[in-house]
Design a protein that fits this description.
The chain has 25 helices and 14 strands. The protein is of the alpha/beta class. The protein has a 6-stranded mixed sheet with strand order 5-4-6-7-1-8, sandwiched between helices. Strand 4 and strand 5 form a beta hairpin.
C-alpha cells in the first residue's frame, strides 16, 4: 500500500512545474524540513487545468492545495495577518485545542502578529500534534521581515529569536523526525539572513519568471475567455515570443487595460509597455536601450564589424552554442564603443539593456538589487547586457571597506557571467577604455572571452568615410564640397566623438545664419574653432592597453603593428608612472 502511494505521488509530481517538482521531491526525501521558496512568488500560479482552463491562485494556496492537498495542519504566518490557517476548520481546531490547553489565552492572542509570541504559540501547537502523526506545514510569507539580511551584531532581540528558532526547528529531532515542514517565502534570497540561507540543511527553491510556453498557454486561456484583444497581425503565440521578461500578472494587466480601453494590443503598445514594466520591475537597475541603427551606420572598424556580423548570422540561425559568452570592447574615449554595441543589437533585433548602478549604502540592498536584476535578465533571454566603464562599475575580488559587499557582488556577477547555460542567450558587453584595470577573472575564456578594440581613424580616407557616416547618423543636410580639403588643412588626431562635435557645431552655425543646409563656410568655421582635448598621455595609454588586449593583428592600427610586446608593456608602465598611477 505504501509503495502504491509513493508511485501515485511520483506520477502526480511529474505534471507539476519544475520548481514544484523540486520542492515535492525534497519533501518526499524526508532529508530536511526547512525550505526557502524565492523569485517570482507574487505571480499567478495555475492550480488546476481542466480541458485547458486555468484557475490561478496565490503561492500559499498552491502549496497548500496542490502540493499538500489541504490535509492535516497547514498554518500561515506573516507580520500583517498574524497566525492563520488554510481552512476555517483548521483555524477553529487550533483555537479549540489551544484554549483547552491554555485557558488563560484569549482568541485574539492566539492569532498574534508578534513573531516571538506567534512562534511560541505555533511551536506549542505543533508539539501537541506531532505524537498524533499529523503532517504539519508552516508557510511564512515576507520572510525577509522576520530574518532580514544583516550582521548578527546588528540584529535586535526579536531578529535573533526568530533566527535561532527557525534554525532550531530545522535541527531539532522532534521536528525533523515528526512530519513538520517550514516554508519561507521571499522575492529575493539576498534579503534573508545568510546564516539561515547558508545552512546546509536549508533547501532553496527558485520560482522563475514564466517561459514562452507558460506565457503562450496563459494568453490562449485569456483569448478563450474573450479577454485578449489583439490586432490582426498578432496571436497568442507571437505575443508570447516577444514578451520575454514579463510574468503572468504583467500580461494580465496588459490584457485588462487593453480590454477596458477597447483598444487592440499592437506591436508598438507591447514594445512601450514591456520597456516600462521591466524598468519598473528592475527598480531602475536596468535601462532599455533602443537602437535605431544597425552595423551599416558604423564607419571603419572593419574587423570588429565582421566579427559582429558573423555573430548576428549565428544568432539568426539559432546557433547559440558557437557564440562567445561575452565581449570585451576596449579603445580610447570617443571611438564609438557603446554605439558599436547598440548597432549590433539593431542588427540582430534582440533587446539590449544597460546595467545601472545597483549599489546601495544600506547593508544587504546591493545584493538584493543584483539578484533581482539577474533574475530579470534570465527571463528576458536572448538579451544583450551592456556595462559602460566596466572597470569602475564591476570592481574586483579584493575591495575593502564595505564589509565584503563588493567582494560578494563581484563573485556573484563573475559566477553568473560564466554560466554556460546562458551562452548565446545572455550576451555580455564590457566596455572600457582601460581594460588593464578590469580583473582577469572577467576577461578570461568563458566570460568576456572575445576581446575587440576600436581605434581612432588614421588615414584621410577613413576620416572622410566617418564624416559621411556621421552626416547620415545626424540626418544633416550638407552642401557638397570636398571634405578632404578641410581634413588636410586641420591635421590632428581626432576621435569619432570629436568629428561628431565639429559637425554639430557646423549645424549650429548654419542655424544661426538662418539656413538648414550646412555650407562649406559653416564647416570651416567649426573646424577653425575646434580645439582638440589636451590629454595626449591618457589617450596614448588607452591606445596601448587596447593594443595589448587585441587577439588579432588585423585589429591593430599600422603604427602599433610592429611594436615589440615587451616594449609595449614598458611604454605602458612609463605612462602610468608619468600619470601617477600605481601598479
Amino acid at each position: 500500500m505504501a509503495e502504491q502511494l509513493i508511485v501515485k505521488n511520483l506520477e502526480f509530481i511529474k505534471v507539476l512545474p519544475s520548481w514544484a517538482q523540486e520542492l515535492s521531491y525534497k519533501y518526499l526525501s524526508k532529508t530536511t524540513n526547512l525550505y526557502i521558496v524565492h523569485g517570482n512568488i507574487r505571480d499567478f500560479l495555475p492550480n488546476k487545468m481542466i480541458e485547458g482552463e486555468f484557475i490561478f491562485v496565490r503561492i500559499q494556496e498552491f502549496v497548500s492545495e496542490v502540493l499538500f492537498g489541504n490535509k492535516d495542519i497547514i498554518a500561515y504566518y506573516d507580520r500583517s495577518s498574524g497566525i492563520n490557517f488554510c481552512t476555517p476548520e483548521m483555524r477553529d481546531q487550533y483555537i479549540k485545542v489551544m484554549r483547552r490547553q491554555y485557558p488563560d489565552l484569549e482568541p485574539e492572542a492566539l492569532i498574534s502578529r508578534d513573531p516571538i509570541k506567534a512562534f511560541d504559540l505555533l511551536e506549542k501547537y505543533f508539539l501537541l500534534n506531532i505524537p498524533n502523526k499529523k503532517r504539519i506545514v508552516l508557510i511564512i510569507d515576507y520572510a525577509e521581515t522576520i530574518v532580514p539580511f544583516t550582521d548578527l551584531s546588528r540584529m535586535d532581540d526579536e531578529d535573533r529569536y526568530c533566527l535561532v528558532t527557525l534554525n532550531r526547528w530545522s535541527h531539532d529531532p522532534i521536528f525533523t523526525q515528526g512530519d513538520v515542514s517550514v516554508i519561507l517565502l521571499t522575492e529575493n534570497l539576498a534579503d534573508l539572513s545568510p546564516r539561515l540561507v547558508g545552512t546546509p540543511t536549508t533547501v532553496k527553491v527558485n520560482i522563475p519568471i514564466p517561459d514562452e510556453t507558460v506565457r503562450r498557454k496563459f494568453l490562449e486561456f485569456l483569448d478563450r475567455k474573450d479577454e485578449l484583444m489583439l490586432e490582426h497581425r498578432l496571436n497568442p503565440e507571437r505575443v508570447a515570443k516577444i514578451t520575454s521578461g514579463l510574468n503572468l500578472m504583467n500580461l494580465n494587466q496588459l490584457a485588462a487595460e487593453s480590454y477596458q480601453e477597447d483598444k487592440p494590443i499592437t506591436l508598438e503598445y507591447l514594445r512601450v509597455k514591456k520597456k516600462e514594466i521591466i524598468e519598473n520591475e528592475g527598480a531602475g537597475l536596468l535601462e532599455f536601450i533602443e537602437s535605431e541603427h544597425d552595423l551599416s551606420m558604423v564607419s571603419g572598424h572593419d574587423f570588429v564589424k565582421k566579427r559582429f556580423k558573423s555573430a548576428a548570422r549565428a544568432i539568426k540561425q539559432g546557433r547559440f552554442d558557437v557564440l562567445p559568452m561575452g565581449y570585451l570592447i576596449a579603445g580610447p574615449v570617443g571611438t564609438g564603443k557603446s554605439f558599436m554595441v547598440t548597432a549590433f543589437a539593431g542588427e540582430i533585433g534582440i533587446p539590449i539593456v544597460r546595467f545601472q548602478n545597483f549599489r546601495s549604502k544600506w547593508q544587504g540592498v546591493t545584493e538584493s538589487n543584483l539578484e533581482k536584476a539577474l533574475n530579470i535578465l534570465k527571463a528576458m533571454s536572448p538579451v544583450g547586457v551592456m556595462i559602460d566603464e566596466a572597470d569602475a562599475f564591476l570592481g574586483d575580488r579584493n575591495q575593502e571597506g564595505d564589509s565584503g559587499t563588493s567582494n560578494r557582488i563581484f563573485a556573484q556577477i563573475a559566477s553568473f557571467m560564466g554560466n554556460t547555460e546562458y551562452r548565446g542567450k545572455i550576451i555580455w558587453f564590457l566596455i572600457t577604455c582601460r581594460p588593464d584595470l578590469l580583473p582577469i577573472d572577467l576577461k578570461r575564456q568563458g566570460r568576456a572571452e572575445e576581446h575587440l578594440a576600436l581605434f581612432y581613424p588614421e588615414t584621410a580616407i577613413e576620416k572622410e568615410e566617418l564624416f559621411s557616416t556621421l552626416i547620415r547618423k545626424l540626418k544633416m543636410k550638407v552642401k557638397e564640397f570636398p571634405i578632404s580639403d578641410l581634413l588636410k588643412r586641420h591635421r590632428f588626431e581626432s576621435s569619432g566623438a570629436d568629428l561628431e562635435s565639429i559637425l554639430i557645431r557646423a549645424k549650429f552655425n548654419a542655424a544661426m545664419e538662418g539656413h538648414v543646409i550646412v555650407t562649406r563656410e559653416d564647416m570651416e568655421q567649426a573646424f577653425e574653432d575646434f580645439i582638440p582635448p589636451a590629454y595626449p598621455h591618457e589617450i596614448e595609454l588607452q591606445n596601448l592597453v587596447a593594443v595589448l588586449e587585441c587577439t588579432s593583428r588585423e585589429m591593430v592600427p599600422k603604427r602599433f603593428q610592429n611594436l615589440d610586446r615587451t616594449k609595449l608593456v614598458n611604454q605602458i608602465r612609463d605612462l602610468k608612472e608619468l600619470l601617477g598611477e600605481r601598479e
